[in-house]
Amino acid sequence: MILPTWLLLLSGTALADYYNPPISDGYGNWSAAYEKARHFVCQLTLTEKVNFTTGVGTGQTVGYSNSIIPRIGFRGLAGDDGPTGVRGADYTSALASGMNLAMTWDRQLIYEQNYINGAEHKAKGANSVAAPVVGPLGHAPAGGRNFEGFSPDPYLSGIAFGEAVRGTQDAGAIAEGKHYLLYEQEHFREIVEWNVWLAEEPNITDPYSSNVDDRTLHELYLWPWYDGVKNHMGAVMCSYNQANNTHACESDRLLNQLLKGELGFQGYVSSDDGSQFSGVASALGGMDVTGPGETSPNGISGLGESYWGPNLTLAVLNGSVPEWRLDDMVTRVMASYYYLGQDKDYPELNFASGNFDTYGYEYPEAELGWRKINLHLDVRDNHAETIRKVGSNSAVLLKNSKNTLPLKKPKQIAVIGEDAGPNKYGPNGCSDRACNEGTMAMGWGSGSTNFPYLVDPLSAIQQRALKDRTVVQYVLDNWAKDQIGDVSWQAEVCLTFVSAISGEGYLEVDNNFGDRNNLTAWKDGDAVVKQVAANCSETVVVIHAPGPILMEEWIDLPNVTAVIFAGLPGQESGNGLVDVLYGDVNPSGKLPWSVGRKREDYGTDVLYKANGPVPQLDFSEGLFIDYRYVDKNNIKPRFEFGFGLSYTTFDYHGLRINAVPAVPTASISPSQAMRTTNPSICPHTSLNPSDYTFPTRCTPTRGGDPKLWDVVYRVRTTVTNTGSVAGQEVAQLYLDLGNGTPPRQLRGFQKVMIQPGEHKEVEFELRRRDVSIWDVVKQQWVEVTKLGTDIKVFVGSSSRDVKLRGVIPATGKAPSMISSMVPSSSSRMSSVVPSSRFKVTPTPTH
Ligand code: BGC
To answer: What is the dihedral angle through the alpha carbons of 123, 128, 131, 132, rounded to the nearest 10 degrees?
Structure first.
């Protein structure tokens, strides 16, 4: 249809004016990449630019593979899932879940595993990795994809996300952080998936909307994205859901104003499969490429239709999308490409996701380009070592009575439960790992990969037990009551395995549509544990699950003497577990969420029944999810956030808190500020660098206002290993920032290895953001001490096991005035540490 010129002009002007145009020019060390990207874009015709932004569908790789530009010999970019390795490939590793990485609380291991992931993607020729995941954050414990991410705590997730981005990109691949934003459950995420594929009633007309206020957005769900952007994340995948009733992939607020404006994101935004719901609006809203390329209004990919492609050309020609926006889209993609140095010796794509044939079509849907598509390169190197280490270092020891663990050459062991053994169909026997057969080492969906092998617990235990001439008996059928009775009666120690699993919404397992229906162990797991415990005086329970499970039915039984939460550890599952069971590795994992006594303890849940044609998820609990809710409501969790035992014990003493003298922030030239900030949310673009004080509304660097990252306080303590074996402790720092914030928020952690009798100094750095809240009126972060608030400081080994307390006084208060702020267990108050500005007191452990 040809529209009259006046209408074209009117619509073009109106839309372009309405949307915010945060055109990035590259700053910091991105400027060279932007330079090259601009040069690249200048060579392209309109249709080439359009082709570039419009993916070609799920071809040889799962993700975005934009059109090759033959005229200038550019092959395009290929991306692949995902968080646990190169999806759909052969001779690649199957990594531990993101949740397991969070359970390690170990920055180095998080970095290392993501480095491996980047390296394997690169070796297979994929330019980008659809990972790491920080959405879902974990609004509800039953959320199907929580295990792909890290933790419902934004600080822990932020640190992990930042390290994961750094690791992936140091290896040379672009990290495509996902899913942005507020994608917190699987039910109702896609229209077709829900109405047709899953044929579930009632029908929906649009994906669900997560509704959240601006402060919660900043302090909780957006928080970790700052860390990703700060660490140069090259790409972001926008999500299926709506946010405050606007599709995430066309949300000017989420993409232009927040991600590209406030956070200063330099890379490109790609759609998820079927998450694009408009052509012009998504382009103006800030989406830069269509990941899978084709789509239809109802989010079905594979139809060969696109909101972009020819439609985008038309939109540019008729003025609905200004050409600068199209240029910006392409520039952003190429800037990431150049920033990662992918123009130099990047391997050719040499695998076809989900297809192990050596020859095939490059574009299978169109049956075009017959060629060698798989070189079957083995890219695993020695990565198994890191995966095993993540497994052992993430295991969380929840209970250990009667000195049951580590095992001491037991005479006879019983291994009980289906979760101890192999899947009878093989480790990759279920499509995208969507089943609960044998041991659970990975969740299902696009976050899965092919196992090159899977060391199940039983095999690893048998191998290790041989060394001690231990007799090993086992029963892998949860319903074989007689046999379970027999072997558990005879054994000295009974290793009992239970599991639960979840995954992505396009697949269903036992009526669980991605999200778990309940928080209990599957396959009658509670009954198995109870039966074993009735016979066996040392029952060790091992749990493989994608999040917390309820364990009230058996946790207090005296014969349940030890419990390990092992998560979803990937290919080295059994080996990592054996390391811990036998004490070769002293457990050091800590819970990245709380274990409640009942489902209601969490305060939040998945919306299972649509409350309208466009389901509405009102996050009315605001900042209070997981332990923040539990703490606020004085609920006694079964195991609190941050909890985890060791085979040794640790003592804390000497809390020292120091303010860090302000250092002038590197000056930002006015022209830089002008280029890189969004005129409509940042009117004073003639900013003088000397006026640039915190907080400001302009954010001319990656990761938001640069002053957010200044270290403003240092908190130090000394941790001593008071036991008889070496071990790692995760020292944790929590703050009470007042002003409606949760009673305790994690704001620091350090993992240290300490020899018996040795003590080590642990230091936490508090950045300005860590002591600030988001002021919705000013649209700024504000330090709470400047609001007259004293910050309460808690240091300990979990969110409830507080060993030391202190106070950071409100601005202007003399240190002497704050002693009355110290909690009144002050009979034990220590004297002020000489170099310290602030009073501290040790508190009894509880
Ligand atoms: C998932 C993404 C994934 C994509 C490609 C989508 O269904 O939400 O996480 O990257 O599929 O497999």
So the answer is: 90
Cβ(184)–Cβ(514) under 8 Å?
A: no
Ligand 1 atom 12: residue of nearest CA: 446
Q: Which amino acid is it at 24?
A: S
**What residues does 66 pair with on adjacent strands?**
55
**Active site members:** 272
The mean-pLDDT minimum among 43-52, 663-672, 783-792 falls in 663-672
pLDDT tens column, 440-477: 999 999 999 999 999 999 999 999 999 999 999 999 99
Inform me whether the pLDDT recorded for 663 exceeds 70. no
pLDDT of residue 835: 32
The pLDDT of 192-221, averaged and rounded, is 92
> What does the pLDDT look like over 92-106, one tens digit per residue?
999 999 999 999 999
Residue 158, ligand 1, Cβ within 6 A: no
Return phi, psi of residue 805, to 5°.
-130, 155
Give CA torsion, residues 382, 386, 387, 389, to 10 deg.
140
- Distance in Å, CA 275 to ligand 1 centroid: 10
Rounded to the nearest whole angstrom, what is the distance from the C-alpha of residue 697 to the centroid of ligand 1? Answer: 34
82 lines ligand 1 (CB under 6 A): yes
Q: Which of 760, 758, 786 is nearest to 772 (CA)?
A: 786
Q: Does ligand 1 have an atom closer than 6 angstroms to the CB of 62?
A: yes
Domain ranges (residues) in the chain: 19-372, 395-593, 650-660+710-842
Q: How far is CA 751 from CA 115, 387, 727, 748, 816, in A?
A: 20, 18, 10, 10, 33
Ligand 1 mutation target, pool 133, 191, 446, 513, most atoms within 8 A of CB:
446
CB 130 within 8 A of CB 237: yes
Amino acid at 371: R
What confidence tier does 294 reach under pLDDT thresholds 50, 70, 90? Answer: low
CA of 178 to the centre of ligand 1 (A): 9
pLDDT at 121 over 60: yes
Judged against a pLDDT cut of 50, whether residue 13 lies above it is answered with no
Q: Which fold has domain 650-660+710-842?
A: Immunoglobulin-like (2.60.40)
Query: CA 145 to CA 132: how far, in whole Å?
Result: 12
- Fold of the CATH domain 395-593: Rossmann fold (3.40.50)
Q: List residues bridging with 130 in a β-sheet.
A: 81
Give the closest residue (by CA) to ligand 1 atom 7.
273
C-alpha distances (whole Å) from 564 to each of 14, 267, 498 are 59, 40, 11
Distances from the Cα of 801 to the Cα of 426, 636, 734, 797, 823, angstroms: 43, 13, 11, 6, 16
pLDDT in tens, 701-734: 678 888 899 999 999 999 999 999 999 999 999 9
Kindly report the protein residue whose alpha carbon is nearest to atom 6 of ligand 1. Answer: 273
- Measured from the Cα of 87, ligand 1's closest atom is 12
Question: Ligand 1 mean position to 317 CA, how many Å?
Answer: 32
In CATH, what number does 19-372 get? 3.20.20.300
The secondary structure of 596-621, three-state, reads CCCHHHHCCCCCCCCCCCCCEEECCC
Q: What is the dihedral of CA 404, 410, 416, 420, to 10 degrees?
A: 90
CB 351 within 8 A of CB 57: no
pTM of the model as a whole: 0.92
Task: Give tens-digit pLDDT for 151-188.
Answer: 999 999 999 999 999 999 999 999 999 999 999 999 99
For 287-301, 548-562, 605-619, 644-658, which range has the lowest pLDDT when averaged over its residues? 287-301
